[in-house]
Queue: 2 jobs
Job 1
Amino acid sequence: MKKIDHVGIAVKDLKNSNRLFASLLGVDVDKIHIEEIEEQKVVASFLKLGNTKVELIEPTSPDSPIAKFLEKKGEGTHHIAFEVVDIKAEMKRLKKEGFKLLSEEPRIGAGGKLICFIHPKTSNGVLVELVQPVKK
Ligand code: CO
């Protein structure tokens, strides 16, 4: 894996949290990129910080995984995403190492990037996301 791509934080109110995190990080609230990710039933915002990002995620439906997370644990850190070069190769490697993947095939995440989650029970309680950037 190459680097931390972003840290995902589950929030109840994206608008308020955008302001809060813009203030915390000292970035311009108007430069926050907001995107709905229908497949995961969430709306997410990305606050760029150096060569990494903070992702704030609000559920758009009560059956969204994020809604369930908020119900169980409340607001807070939800996942850590790592950039990978070849997601399929990385998925194959991790599977061999004994990690449980949440999908057999890469899925489409924010920005059309290929993503895959690793079950937190096989990674010390940390939900890990793999992200392969879109090739230009
Ligand atoms: Co993410």
Job 2
Amino acid sequence: MAEQRLLFVCLGNICRSPAAEGVFLHLLAQEGLEDRVVVDSAGTGGWHVGRPADRRMRAAAERRGIHLPSRARQIELADFSRFDRILTMDADNLRAVQALARELGPRSGQAQIEPMTSHCRRFSVGDVPDPYYGGDQGFEHVLDLLEDACAGLLETLRPALR
Ligand code: 4NP
């Protein structure tokens, strides 16, 4: 039985949130905890539904030995009851997810909505910036932030995984 269900959310679900999913899966595999956590990702927008992660994001992750398996999908209302935590990449994603939760009102399920960067231990930043229109350095920075945040998140969850 999985003990925790996590949904990572960005705008397009082809750069940041699939990277967060891959980085977290990588950490779980290193610790033999894959069976204890369900991990998924989604976008607030639907433009890229069905596509694999952006080639630049996949290449940057592969250089760190991290595979990004996901295909893009859009967040849906059922996600608020399917997942324990919804982790948003930036302030726009947070607002969009909170607006969806308000649509559901008291039926919005148990998902706790929180910024991904709130789990960073080394970096002190509010957002994982959108790398889509920038250069390679942006993708590396996304991975640096996500490796930090995923490690912090795993430490937060660890007591619930025992
Ligand atoms: P993501 O990046 O939200 O990290 O997946 C983006 C991907 C695509 C677009 C914007 C951001 N887009 O405008 O198509």
